[in-house]
Amino acid sequence: SVDLKLDLYLPKKSSSRLFPVAVNIHGGSWSVGDKGNSDSAADIPEFIDRGYVVATVNYRLAPTYQFPAQIEDVKCAIRFLRAHAQSYNLDPNRIGAWGCSAGGHLAALLGLTDPSAGFDQGEYAKESSRVQVVATLSTPMDITLYDPTARAEMLQRVFGTNTDKTILAKASPINYASQNAAPFLIFQGNRDLIRKCHSQPSVVLGKLVFGGSI
Question: Residue 166 and residue 147: Cα distance in Å, rounded?
Answer without folding.
Answer: 16
